[in-house]
């Protein structure tokens, strides 16, 4: 994020917070700095208390569907990291920055024509505590943050949000997220499904989940990086052959010096970071693998869209498809290209346990950012129960 973006955020933060009354009730926002007209969509912002003891509050943006809000799905969307702010300027949100050289003036915003609000209402949530505008009044609220508190805070948020927004309780609901939030999405969805089975209120109309380039925490995530890097020409035949010879198919925990040396060579220039994400707050990855949650949910009839940019070295599509295939469910729509505007936009396959796996041609780790038009088309078709 450049200086211009940081300047805009410094203006947006107090602007948004001033709109929120002391009662923390939701507020409709009609204008934003950097966008000269009235917002062409319905935007609501607010805080929801998720932990009375520490005063933890999660901040959200709610963008109502621009199509048929009374019947369209509602999607909770979280970004990765953890501690990456969702905001409305990234991924599925309805605004984007106008890219221009920084000249000291206020950066401009533009309407995103490929916002997922074209097909669904979206709750963009800053979670866990410490992400974006979400905070805790007591410093203890920033201690012991991890997968467990993350998932339970989101569950509390959703129960309170749907209680305050009963109009949307009957709409189909999906949990969604990219990268690390892709790990948390099925965990949160399973918590919701358990509350549904117990008859708890409000009854959230959970239908499934959507994850992009998802982390699982399992060995699948890392073990396909070397084969993928060779397949797309990042590493040489010689280095790949040395990896095969010395590591014997296991590229995560080297058992000898030669394998370790090869993997160290592979790691050079391949590492990056999300600059809009907080790195100073400790986070505990307490769930070693989310794969069992995917299996449990889809085995019980919940739909899942799992998509991957095919230019992602962080979580290669080979890694994601490998754990999807490990469930050994039968194929109902075999591997094929899916198209947009007469061109192949990626490839897809659907399994009998309600999982649709799709690749996004040319997409990176945050494929919605890289291929917004294709990702919107994919989401719209899947949410409308149409084949990709």
Which keywords apply here?
alpha/beta; two-stranded antiparallel ribbon; 21% strand; serine-type carboxypeptidase activity; zymogen
Mean pLDDT: 88
What fold name goes in the CATH topology slot?
A: Rossmann fold
Second rung of CATH, namely the architecture: 3-Layer(aba) Sandwich
Specify the CATH class.
Alpha Beta
**Which spans of ≥5 residues are poorly predicted at pLDDT below 50?**
1-23
Largest sheet: 12 strands, mixed
Going by CATH, the homologous superfamily would be Alpha/Beta hydrolase fold, catalytic domain
Strand content: 15-25%
Radius of gyration: 21 Å
Q: What is the ordering of alpha helices and beta strands?
A: HEEEEEEEEHEHEHHHHHEHEEEHH
Structurally, how many domains make up the residues?
A: 1
Helix/strand/pairing class, anyone?
A: alpha/beta
Q: Choose one word for the global shape.
A: globular
- E-strand count: 14
Helicity, in percent? 25-40%
Tally of individual helices = 11
Distance between the termini: 33 Å
């Amino acid at each position: 994020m450049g200086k211009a973006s940081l300047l805009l955020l410094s203006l947006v933060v107090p602007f948004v917070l001033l709109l929120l009354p002391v009662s923390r009730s939701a507020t409709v926002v009609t204008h934003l700095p950097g966008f000269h007209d009235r917002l062409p969509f319905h935007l609501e912002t607010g805080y929801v208390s998720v932990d009375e003891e520490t005063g933890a509050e999660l901040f959200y943006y709610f963008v109502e569907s621009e199509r048929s809000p009374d019947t369209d799905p509602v999607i909770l969307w979280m970004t990765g990291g953890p501690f990456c702010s969702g905001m409305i300027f990234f991924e599925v949100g309805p605004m984007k920055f106008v890219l221009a050289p920084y000249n000291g003036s206020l950066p401009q915003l533009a309407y995103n024509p490929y916002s997922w609000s074209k097909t669904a209402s979206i709750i963009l949530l800053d979670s866990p505590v410490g992400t974006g505008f979400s905070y805790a009044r007591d410093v203890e609220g920033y201690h012991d943050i991890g997968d467990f508190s993350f998932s339970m805070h989101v569950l509390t948020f959703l129960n309170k949000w749907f209680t305050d927004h009963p109009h949307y309780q009957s709409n189909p609901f999906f949990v969604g997220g990219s990268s690390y939030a892709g790990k948390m999405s099925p965990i949160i969805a399973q918590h919701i499904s358990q509350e549904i089975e117990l008859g708890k209120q409000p009854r959230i109309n959970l239908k499934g989940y959507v994850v992009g380039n998802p982390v699982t925490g399992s060995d699948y995530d890392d073990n396909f990086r070397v084969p993928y890097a060779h397949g797309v020409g990042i590493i040489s035949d010689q280095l790949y052959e040395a990896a095969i010879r010395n590591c014997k198919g296991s590229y995560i925990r080297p058992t000898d010096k030669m394998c370790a040396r090869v993997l160290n060579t592979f790691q050079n220039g391949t590492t990056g970071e999300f600059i809009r994400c907080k790195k100073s707050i400790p986070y505990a990855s307490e769930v070693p693998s989310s794969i069992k949650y995917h299996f449990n949910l889809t085995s019980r009839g919940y739909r899942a869209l799992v998509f991957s940019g095919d230019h992602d070295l962080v979580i290669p599509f080979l890694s994601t498809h490998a754990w999807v295939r490990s469930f050994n469910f039968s194929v109902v729509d075999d591997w094929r290209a899916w198209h947009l505007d007469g061109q192949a936009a990626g490839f897809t396959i659907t399994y009998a346990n309600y999982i649709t796996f799709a690749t996004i041609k040319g997409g990176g780790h945050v494929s919605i950012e890289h291929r917004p038009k294709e990702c919107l088309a994919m989401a719209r078709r899947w949410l409308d129960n149409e084949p990709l």
